[in-house]
Amino acid sequence: MVHKLKLDELNRIDVETFKKTEKIPLVIILDNIRSMHNVGATFRTADAFLIEKIILCGITPQPPHREIHKAALGATESVDWNHEKDINTAINNLKSQGFEIVGIEQTNNSQPITDFTIDKAKKYALILGNEVEGISDEALENIDTFLEIPQLGTKHSLNVSVCGGIVMWEFAKALK
User: CA-CA distance, 33 to 86, in Å (whole number)?
Assistant: First the structure.
């Protein structure tokens, strides 16, 4: 008979073990995200896929906050993060560490994520932009590659946390 697994049957690691576990070479940059729900949901997804770190830039809300915690369900305790006021400082720091910077944005030279080859030998930083304005204009010239998720319906964008989940999963599958 089929039954839903109870929490103790899921065999999830604890926070201490998570901290010691090798992470996927992937950093998420949240650029001026306004919604605490989107921030929390991104933390929760980053925990699920063993993402190395989240960098909160600009006005992006920071933990601890009750609204972030409601969506993150404790992932702000497991996933490493820091705040960087200026996104270009974050980008330049990551580039100096050998990260390829990937903007998730619809631009005149973006390519579908389905056409992008994720190289297991590389480290990537994915930038997710503001819910209305997208990635900050001042960051665009410092980004190596732009990817977008192909969409077939009438809407022109996805919620940023949904988009982040799709993209993190694609990279996690390839880099794990």
Answer: 13
Per-residue pLDDT in tens (0 to 9) along the chain, 176 residues:
999 999 889 999 999 999 999 999 999 999 999 999 999 999 999 999 999 999 999 999 999 999 999 999 999 999 999 999 999 999 999 999 999 999 999 999 999 999 999 999 999 999 999 999 999 999 999 999 999 999 999 999 999 999 999 999 999 999 99
Token readout for 43 is 């933390």
Instruction: Locate the DSSP E strands across the chain.
Output: 24-31, 51-57, 81-84, 99-104, 111-112, 123-128, 145-148
What is the distance between the alpha carbons of residues 126 and 27, in angstroms, rounded to a whole number? 6
Note the pTM of the prediction, 2 decimals.
0.96
